[in-house]
Structure formats: structure tokens, C-alpha cells
Amino acid sequence: MKHSKALKMFSVHLLLFALGTALFLGCAKSAFQKGQEAYFKADFDKSIEYFEQMKTKKDKNYVLYMLDLGTAYFTAGDYYEAENAFLAGIQTMEKDVSEAQAAVQLAKSDAKKTYTGDPHDMAMAHVFTGLLNMELGDLEAAEIEFRKALESDRGKEEKYEGDLCLAHYFLGQVYRMKGELDNARIAFRNVTEHRPEFPYAWYELADIAEQENLSGEAETFLQNYRDKDNYCSLGRGLEHDPNLADLTIVLCLGKGPMKKADPFLGAFSQVAERKYKEEYAELSVGGALLCRSYQVDDVTHQAKTSGGFGGELARKTAQVVAQQALQAVPGVGLFSGLLLGGAEADVRYWYTLPGEFHIIRGLVAPGNYSLELKFYDKKDKELEGYRQVWYYVPVREGQSNILILRSMLGMQKG
Amino acid sequence: MIMTKRMSVCSGFLLLVLMTFVFFCATTGKFVNTKPLESPPVKYCNDATGHAPGSKPWILGGTCCCTPSPQLVEQYHRDGIALDLTYEDLVRMYREAGITTDLDHKGCNNMCDHGPHVVKGGKCMCTPTPGTRNFEQVVSGVFVTAEK
After folding, report:
1. Is pTM beyond 0.90 here?
2. Is residue A309 part of a domain?
3. CA-nearest residue of chain A to B52?
């Protein structure tokens, strides 16, 4: 009787222990997930610490580690390490796999496969590298990166090829600084074609036309600018006031796209939007309202329209054929599913990627300023907890004063 | 007896609701950014803020963290600071002290192996990145603890 009671108690304890262990293992997060969580809590140092731990693993998700690590360094303002991380990610994405490796990769399920990045991952990694080179004043490197971003921007259809307006816009800026007006005009033209509602490209076209004494054309472009920017933060005319300097803020807004299994074709993944509240931001410089932000690129749209479906279809077909062939081998068939996994969709994605890129520009007197950014939702209601204030922001005459910021809830807790 | 059973079920349910509410509040708490628009004064100048006239080089016990350049040394001389100091001397002094500047590398926001910034007790004097917490802490000299 006593034994039976003790046995019962032992069984209960064993069951509780097993349940506890299962719960613990289920809830235990990898350093990678912890890094991603820390990033969106604006704890970039912690986030970098976690991502750095993953870097040494060099496993199938190495590219994703590098892209997240690069974004974390980028947001924390360490452009040196951000560039190293992005370049490591890009190099791995570009790496050619050997035929033997390709055959093994082909038979594996997507989740077990080495992540080699989507076309928009590659394009965005080049965009970030271009931006940080702009910030560091290395125009040559920035030009190369923005060009590569456009080359990697493969579209589902021809009209979506090379439609990354941020890359075109900054290429235009680089060409202007180098005095290559023809190239600059083409770059800004590309922006106005893909995103006609973006005002600053119209202003640049007007300015270039003015420099080339095409006053009629300049006036048309300028009118387009005035129609699109109610704040007219670059001025209503094209006269350059020598007492004013140009301030540009690149705003990384919201959360980038996610991937989920297609509800009809479970083996395929589809790009889905991640929810976030920020719609736009308003900028005040030294306490005075300067202007609002304008979207230059929608990253989710870029991901949805990026090419590769044909490639994915072929890959998937080959994968299913390879798995079926393996299943036919006596003694292997039973275990092939276990070894290779099913043909489920690959839903891995670049978690810390922003959802949109916005630009804010304005002319202010040279000096060091306190900047205030207020964020608004779709209903023009200010979002509590998103406000950002940055001190001593330098605006210098004759320099491209570029500041790169990211919207985030609780970025400046207090 | 029946009442007691009902009561225990109700209290259990209430406890569950209360715990859910506490969990909800803990995870979705509102942040309010009360950071004022007026910044603390610039205590330590650097290449981004521009040189503060009259400030002595960091290596000589001053508050100037600007990258050494012949123009900067001339400015020191105009302000009557370290009149016998040459540009080469200044670069050598920083190197001998193991302090890295923008002459060595750029863009690390003092997160490199030499970091944090000298103001925070490290060995990196590279210009911090504007629009970051580190930049504000370095310029104002206001930070909680010196890391490293």
C-alpha cells in the first residue's frame, strides 16, 4: 500500500517534471530571437551582443544573422561594423554553391536549407551599405553600393525591375556632388517615374534644369515640387540662400515584411505585411516645425514585387522529384522525410528590416540643433511613445548633412 | 459545501483575470518621452559639433576631442593654447597614449575595441555618430556609468 502511494507520488512528480521541462524548452529562446526582441526594445547593445554570439555559429541561417547584426550596428550608429556585417551577408548570398552541395540543398526542406536570401534582401543590404557610405562621406563606395542595389532589385515583372527609389535618389545626389548632371538627371527622373508623389526629386530636376538654363522646364518641375510638398521646406523658388544649409533625414520607418506559408500552395511562402502604427513623421528644428516625411520606398511592396517566383517554382518541383526519388530507395524511403524534412514553405525573413524608407529635407541656418520628431498614424493622430528628440545635430554649410534615424516605440524611454 | 466550491472556482477565475490584466499591463505599458527640447550645454567638442574656441586638447587635460589637424593646432595657437605644440606632436601624443582618432578609423561610434569614448573612460576619440545616445552622452558629458 505504502509502495503504491509512493509510486503514485513519484508518477505525479515525474509528470510535473516532464511538463515543466517541455514548457521550459518550448519557451526557451535562442540568442538570435533574444537579439531580435532586444532590437525592438531599442536595446541595441544587448541586441548586438546576442547577434554576435550567433555570428560564430556559421550555420544555415548565417545570412540572417549577418543582416540582423548589420541592422543593429547601423541603428546604433556603428557604421564600421555595420558595413562588415552587411558585406559578410552579401558575400554569402553571392557565393556559388558547388554541384554536390546544390544537390544536397535541393533535396532538403526549405527550413533546413542554407538561407541564401531573397532578391530584396540583397538589394536592401546594398541600400544600407550605400547609406552608411554616404554618411561617412565615401561617395565612390556609396555609388557602387546603390548601383548594386538596383542591379539586385529583380522584379516579378519588368516594371518592377530597379524601382528602388532611395537608391536612384541618392545616386542622383552622388552624381550632383561629382558634377555629373546628365547622370543625376536620369537618376532623379527614375524617382519621379516610379514615385511621382515624392517631392524632392522634382526639386532636384528643377534645380538641374535651372543650372542648364532651361527655365521653362525648371518652372514646371518646381511647380510639381510645390504641389507635392505643402511645407516647401526647400523654398518656393530656386534661389540659393548662402546663409542656409541643406539637412536630409533618412527615416527607417516601421517593420519590414514577413513570410508565411501560402494558404493554398503550402509548399510556397508568400510575403505578408507586418503591422505597425507609424505612417509619417513631422520634424521640428530648434523648436520650429520644418516639414513632414515623405515615403521614398515601401519595403513590403519591394518584397512582394521582387522576382524569383519562376526560380522558386522550378526549385520546388526539383525538390519534390528529388524527395520522391529518395523515397523509392529501399531502406531510405522510410527515413527520407525525417532526414530531409517535408516540402514545407521557407518562412525565414530579415526580422529587423524597416517597412518603409522616408526622407525629410529642409534648409536651415548652419549650426547645431535639437531635432524633434513626432510620429503620426493613418488618422493623423500623434503616436505616444514614438517621439524622438536628438541634441547637437550638426548642420554645416556646403556639406551633405545626412542623419539616419529609425522609428521605434520607446526609442527614448523616460 | 457547494457554495465553497463555487467560491473557490470564482476566486480562481478572478485570479486568472487579474493575472492576465497584470501581464497585459506589463507587456504593453505606455512609454512617454519627456525629453526636453533644450539640450545640456556642449561640454566636450568634436568634429561634428565643431571646435569650441578656447578649449584645450583632451590629451593636455582639456575638453577638445576634435581630430588633430594643422588647422586645429593653428586655432589652439590663436587661442593662446600650447603655443609650442605642432600638429605632428599632437598626433604623436595621442598615438603614444593609445588613443585612436578619425585619422585611424571612422564611423565606429566608439563601439570599436578601443571604445568607449575617452570622455567615458575608453581609448577611442573617433567622432561619435550624431542622432545616437552615445553622441549625446559624449558631447554633454552626462552618462550614468563609464563602461569598460
Report:
1. no
2. yes
3. A368
Cell of A391: 541634441
Which amino acid is it at A413? K
Residue A107 is part of which domain span? 96-406
**Phi, psi dihedral angles at B104 (to 5 degrees):** -95, -50
Q: CATH number of the domain at A308, please.
A: 1.25.40.10
Residue A221 above 90 pLDDT?
yes
Provide the shortest C-alpha distance from residue A129 to chain B (in Å).
13
> Which residues on B lie below 8 Å from A132 (Cβ)?
107
Rounded CA-CA distance A382/B32 in Å is 12
Q: Per the domain annotation, does A412 fall within a domain?
A: no
Given a contact cutoff of 8 angstroms between Cβ atoms, the answer to whether B29 and B44 are in contact is no
CB-CB neighbours of B99 under 10 Å: 20
Q: Is A402 helix (H, G, I), strand (E, B) or coil?
A: strand
> Could you tell me which residues come within 8 angstroms of residue A346 by beta carbon, excluding any fewer than 6 positions away?
A110, A111, A113, A115, A259, A269
Answer whether A111 touches B (CB < 8 Å). Answer: no
pLDDT 10s digits, A363-385: 999 999 999 999 999 999 999 89
Contact B30 A385 (CB under 8 A): yes
Q: Regarding beta strands A258-261 and A367-376, do their DSSP bridges make them parallel or antiparallel, or are they unpaired?
A: unpaired
A69-125, pLDDT tens digit by residue?
A: 999 999 999 999 999 999 999 999 988 554 445 555 555 556 667 888 888 999 999
B49 in a domain, yes or no? Answer: no
